[in-house]
Automatic annotation (TrEMBL):
GO terms for biological process: tRNA processing. The keyword Transcription does not apply. InterPro entries: DTW, DTWD2/TAPT. Keywords: S-adenosyl-L-methionine, Transferase, tRNA processing. Residues 6-193 form the DTW domain. Belongs to the TDD superfamily. DTWD2 family. Signal peptide: none annotated. GO terms for molecular function: tRNA-uridine aminocarboxypropyltransferase activity. This is tRNA-uridine aminocarboxypropyltransferase. It is an enzyme of class 2 (transferase). It comes from the Bacteria.
Length: 213
């Protein structure tokens, strides 16, 4: 049996060292505190955009957990009345995400996982379920060109985080956070080949298809 060593991975971005994306990750400041709660099944997903978001935003934390134990540091942080905490999730009673005249620090929770796993996180954790839910404006389109969106307006975690921050802090730009995401998409397109990508993923007349605009 041949012993094949696994490729070394960058500890920061979790990518293979030969394809490290750390050079594309900025360090941006925001007034909004972002808590990213990642379902454990997403930890080793190839498109782990939650890690990129947490690495690029100074005022952000990534927690990989399914059950948030009462008394834990994360539980206390979510329940802290000194912060105005909301969950970015388009539930039936969600209000539109907007700036608010509230002197408390705004803490925005992002749930990283499939829609089913995100709903499971809410169901398993009453501390999340009781928090106000907010949603982004309808009609936003994902930049991830290699996947059909599971629902209209479905965005990756990093795209949702950037869109939310630019609503809450319109005087700043957070587009630089998307650089590692864009690079990852470019790498995936290169790996399948440009012609195959155009044939299987592009709609006629789209900007990347080579057709007239």
């Amino acid at each position: 049996m041949v012993d094949r060593a696994l490729p070394k991975r960058c500890e920061a971005c979790a990518r293979p060292s030969s394809r490290c994306l750390c050079s594309t990750i900025p360090r941006l400041h925001s007034s909004t505190r972002m808590l990213i709660i990642q379902h454990p099944s997403e930890r080793h997903h190839a498109l782990n955009t939650a890690r990129f978001l947490a690495a690029g935003l100074v005022n952000a934390e990534l927690h990989v957990v399914e059950h948030i134990a009462p008394g834990s540091a994360l539980y206390s942080q979510l329940a802290d009345p000194a912060r105005r905490t909301e969950v970015l999730f388009p539930g039936p009673g969600a209000s539109s995400l907007a700036r608010a005249a509230d002197p408390r620090e705004h803490q925005l929770v992002l749930l990283d996982g499939t829609w089913r796993k995100a709903r499971k996180l809410l169901h398993l954790n009453p501390i999340l379920a009781v928090l106000p839910q907010v949603a982004l404006a309808a009609g936003l389109a994902s930049r991830y060109r290699l996947r059909k969106a599971p629902a209209p307006g479905a965005l990756s975690t990093i795209e949702a985080g950037v869109a939310a921050l630019e609503v809450l802090e319109p005087d700043k730009s957070f587009q630089a956070l998307l650089r590692p995401f864009d690079r990852l998409i470019e790498e995936q397109i290169a790996s399948i080949g440009t012609e195959l990508y155009r044939r299987n993923y592009l709609k006629p007349g789209s900007a990347d298809s080579g057709s007239d605009r």
